[in-house]
Amino acid sequence: MEMDDLAEEVVITIYCDDEVVVRILATPSDLEDLAIGHIACEGRGTIDSSRVEENSVYLSGSVLSRPSGDLLTAACGACTEGEIEDVEARVPNTFKLGVEPFRLCNEMRGLQPVFSATGGVHAAALANSQQVVLVREDIGRHNAVDKVIGAAITAKLDPSEHCLILSGRIGWELVAKAARVGIELMISLGAVSTAAADLARSCGMTLVGFTSEGKGVVIGPTSRIIDKLN
Q: Would residue 76 show up in a list of annotated catalytic residues for this protein?
C-alpha cells in the first residue's frame, strides 16, 4: 500500500502588540512572509518587527485588526463579511514582459515542491521581465499571494517592478491585493472572474488568464505583453 502526502492546513494567528490581528487557515510554512504580505496586500498598516512562534506570528507596529472572531479560510473570497469594497489604486504603466507568459508559468511549476508531493496547494510567483525570482505555496490562493509579496518585501524587492504569476484562477481579491502593492500584470493558468476583470480595468492592470503556449485571454492594456501572445 502506498502512503500519500497531504497538504497541511492549520489555523495561523497573527498578533500585533498582543492583540489578535487575524486568524488565517493556511499551510504552516513561510509564516513571516504570510504575515508581512497579508498586512501589505490588505493595506492594513505598517510593521516594525516580526517573529514566529509555532503557528503564531507576532508583529509590532501600527496594524488594523480584522473583526473579532473573523477566520479567513483557504477558500475565502473578498472577505468573510461578504463585502467587496472599493480599491483606490491606480497602477503605473512601466512594466513590459520580455518573454512569453506561458514560459513563466512553466518555470513556476518547476519550483513547486509541495504541490509535487501533495497535489494539494496553490502557488504564486513574482517574475521580472525575463524570469521567476520568487515562489511561495499554500493551501489558499490568497495566502500564496500574501506569502510571495511578503517574501519580496523582506528581500527588499519592489513588488511593483514584477509581474504576479498564479497557478489558479484570478479572482477579485487577488487583483485587489496586487493593485494595493502596485503590480501591473497578472498571469494565470486559470480563468479570470468578472469582478476581477472589472477591478483590473479600473486600476489600469493587465490580466492574462487561461495561459497556454502562445495563447491567453487578455483583460486590460496589451502594451505590457505586446508580441508575446499570438
A: yes
